[in-house]
Design a protein that fits this description.
The structure holds 2 protein chains of 2 kinds. Chain A contains 4 helices and 3 strands. By secondary structure, chain A is an alpha+beta fold. Chain A has a 3-stranded antiparallel sheet with strand order 1-3-2. Classes of the chains: A alpha+beta, B mainly alpha.
C-alpha cells in the first residue's frame, strides 16, 4: 500500500465517525496517530476529490460565520470500501507480525 | 521545502491547468485550510510550506479532472481536413471488403449493420446526460469508428472463402487502418470518468452531467 492509498484509507476512517471538513480531517489524522502520521496537507484535497469522484464520500456546502465550508461524509459505498481496506490491512499486519514474531 | 511564499503563488502553480469551476472550488478549500492554520498560530509562509509540493498536487488533480486544454480540445471544431476525410474513409473501410471479397456472405453484412446500430444506440444511452456540446462530439465520432473496427476485425477473422490470399496484405491493411481510425475515440473513452467529474463541477446544480 503506497502513501496515497494509506491516505485514502485514513480519510475514510476519519469520516466513518462523523462528517468533517478538510482541515478537521488533517487534524484528526495527526491527533489520532499522536503526531506519527502527517501527510503533506496539500495532498489531502486531491485525494478527497478523487474519493468523491468514486462516490466513496460526498460533500455538502454550508455557511458558518459568513464563510462557506465544505463538509465531507462517508457514503454507503465508502463504508464498504473502508471495511475491505481494513480487512486487507489486518491481513498485512498479521503477516508482518508472524514474520517478526518468528525471528524472535 | 516548497519554493512558494504566499498561498496565491502556490495555488497558481498547483491549479494552473485546471478548468475554472475546479479552480474555484479548490481555491476556496485551500484558503479556508490556510486560515485555519493561521488561527493555530502559523504564519502564511509556514502554512504554505506545510501544503507541500504544488507540482505533486497538480499531477494528482489531473488524475481526477480533465485540464482546461483537454476540455477545449473536446469543444473545438475538428480540423476541416479531418472532417473532409473521415466519412469517405469510413465508407471505404466498410465497403472495400465487400468489393474485394466477391463471395462475402450476406450474414456478415447483416452482422455489421447490427454492430453499427448497436454502437449508435449504446453511445446515445451512455451520453444522454452529457452537456450537448460534448455529447455531439462523442455521438458523431465514437459509434462510427468503433463499429468500423469491430466489423473489419470480424471480417478478417472470418477470412471468408480464402479470398484474402489474392491480396496477401489486405487483412493487415484493413486492421491497421481501422485501428488508426478508432484511436481517438478510444482515448476519449479512457477519459470518460474524468470528463464526467469535471463537468459535474461545471454544472453542480444538475443531478447528472
Amino acid at each position: 500500500m503506497n502513501a496515497r492509498e494509506q491516505l485514502r484509507m485514513l480519510i475514510l476512517a476519519v469520516l466513518e465517525r462523523q462528517p468533517e471538513h478538510g482541515y478537521a480531517i488533517a487534524q484528526a489524522i495527526k491527533t489520532r496517530s499522536e503526531g506519527l502520521l502527517t501527510a503533506r496537507e496539500g495532498t489531502l484535497y486531491p485525494v478527497l476529490h478523487a474519493l468523491e469522484a468514486e462516490e466513496l464520500i460526498q460533500s455538502n456546502e454550508y455557511d458558518q460565520g459568513g464563510r462557506t465550508r465544505r463538509e465531507y461524509q462517508l457514503t454507503e459505498k465508502g463504508h464498504k470500501a473502508l471495511a475491505g481496506s481494513r480487512r486487507d490491512w489486518d491481513k498485512k499486519i498479521r503477516a508482518v507480525n508472524a514474520v517478526l514474531g518468528g525471528s524472535q | 521545502m516548497s519554493e512558494y511564499t504566499t498561498l496565491n503563488q502556490w495555488l497558481h502553480e498547483a491549479l494552473r491547468e485546471m478548468p475554472l469551476p475546479v479552480w474555484r472550488r479548490l481555491e476556496a478549500e485551500y484558503q479556508l485550510h490556510i486560515e485555519n492554520m493561521k488561527r493555530e498560530g502559523l504564519t502564511e509562509l509556514e502554512a504554505v510550506q506545510a501544503l507541500g509540493s504544488a507540482n505533486q498536487v497538480r499531477k494528482s488533480l489531473k488524475r481526477t479532472y480533465l485540464t482546461e486544454k483537454e476540455l477545449e480540445h473536446l469543444r473545438e471544431d475538428r480540423h476541416p481536413l479531418l472532417e473532409f476525410v473521415s466519412k469517405p474513409l469510413w465508407l471505404f473501410l466498410m465497403i472495400s471488403p465487400m468489393v474485394v471479397i466477391p463471395s462475402i456472405k450476406w450474414n456478415v453484412i447483416l452482422i455489421s449493420c447490427g454492430i453499427v446500430v448497436a454502437s449508435i444506440v449504446l453511445t446515445h444511452l451512455i451520453t444522454h446526460s452529457l452537456r450537448s456540446d460534448y455529447r455531439q462530439v462523442i455521438r458523431d465520432e465514437v459509434p462510427i469508428r468503433i463499429s468500423t473496427l469491430v466489423y473489419l476485425v470480424l471480417i478478417c477473422l472470418m477470412d471468408i472463402s480464402g479470398d484474402f490470399t489474392a491480396f496477401p496484405y489486405w487483412s493487415q491493411v484493413l486492421i491497421l487502418s481501422s485501428l488508426c481510425f478508432t484511436l481517438e475515440p478510444f482515448s476519449l473513452l479512457r477519459q470518460w470518468s474524468r470528463l464526467r467529474r469535471t463537468l459535474q463541477l461545471e454544472c453542480p446544480s444538475t443531478p447528472s452531467v
